[in-house]
Amino acid sequence: xxxxxxxxxxxxxxxxxxxxxxxxxxxxxxxxxxxxxxxxxxxxxxxxxxxxxxxxxxxxxxxxxxxxxxxxxxxxxxxxxxxxxxxxxxxxxxxxxxxxxxxxxxxxxxxxxxxxxxxxxxxxxxxxxxxxxxxxxxxxxxxxxxxxxxxxxxxxxxxxxxxxxxxxxxxxxxxxxxxxxxxxxxxxxxxxxxxxxxxxxxxxxxxxxxxxxxxxxxxxxxxxxxxxxxxxxxxxxxxxxxxxxxxxxxxxxxxxxxxxxxxxxxxxxxxxxxxxxxxxxxxxxxxxxxxxxxxxxxxxxxxxxxxxxxxxxxxxxxxxxxxxxxxxxxxxxxxxxxxxxxxxxxxxxxxxxxxxxxxxxxxxxxxxxxxxxxxxxxxxxxxxx
Length: 385
Ligand code: TRH
What we know:
Layout: E1 6-11, H1 18-34, E2 37-42, H2 45-51, E3 61-64, E4 67-71, E5 87-91, H3 98-106, E6 112-116, H4 124-128, E7 132-134, E8 141-145, H5 162-170, H6 173-182, H7 187-191, E9 193-197, H8 205-213, E10 219-224, H9 229-236, E11 245-248, E12 251-256, H10 261-270, E13 273-277, H11 280-288, E14 292-295, H12 303-315, H13 323-332, H14 342-351, H15 353-368, H16 373-383
Parallel strand pairs: 1-2, 1-5, 2-4, 5-6, 6-8, 9-10, 9-13, 10-12, 13-14
Antiparallel strand pairs: 3-4, 7-8, 11-12
Helix pairs in contact: 8-14, 12-13, 13-14
């Protein structure tokens, strides 16, 4: 285990910042908590800069938070055995440069090679977690590592002490007020039901906003710049730039700048309800210990609906008091079948929010008991060398 001190993590930003969101979090944690020398290879520094504003988009090589960041813009390049780390992770089955793989095969001992997979609650991952495959020509062995929600998976990414930081923040009203004031919220806006809204463009945002607008209690909804732009602009009656805000009926909608990852955590902690998406913000909402609604990344043949149902099955199915969560989530993701009655969905959801709050707290403890993904991965890597 002690011999595994260097790690290379290869990340390709597909069409968003989700992949880099996960890889950046993992890289920092491996460096900070385990003393690993990490190099993060990333193809899209502009997307990276949105969640880490100090990134220099022109730099071929730079150090951020103790992690070496390499701009990965080509599959070419020459690599020697000295370039190869002890642990090599390809995120989400990205192809890494052939010359790097050839150098891996020359190493003695050979590096521990992982494909870090995407998160899903489906049962089959338990059977595939930690399975290996052998490179047909070079004989290199690669292991598949799955994050997940059960003991037979790698667990979820979570930093040491995160829970304590969250509890400290959530029990400190002044800290919450100062944080929200810095984002431009007034006292009245902070006192309303506070909701953060992060989703893919196809979410039925206009319908949800209308339900909040005609509700009998006030809601303040915070939406990052560039998210649900069409519906947000229609509500605001002006361009959806950071700082823009409007109130209609019971709803105040405010556009936020895209904030660094650690501030995004604070935003989730400060809100009463979080709409999240993809993988990383979905997991962070679980660590926030607050009710959340997930907009899942769309896949061909509605595969994502299967994944959404698998998660709801684990999270909500056994509790009748959470029925409104499943109903609203399915409609939010276009998996609800018949036409949605958004005012009714929202009223039912709102009524069940106390039960959802309890569920969020219990779930969080259940997930923490799985250990954290970074430690679980390193422990497994140690058994392979
Ligand atoms: O970007 P995402 O949609 O995630 C991904 C990708 O689409 C990916 O291709 C797909 O494979 C995967 O989903 C399933 O959403 P996600 O995962 O929530 O990532 C967003 C990241 O941005 C996350 O790390 C949180 C961060 N973030 C900030 O740092 N500041 C912000 O203001 C916001 C709104 C998000």
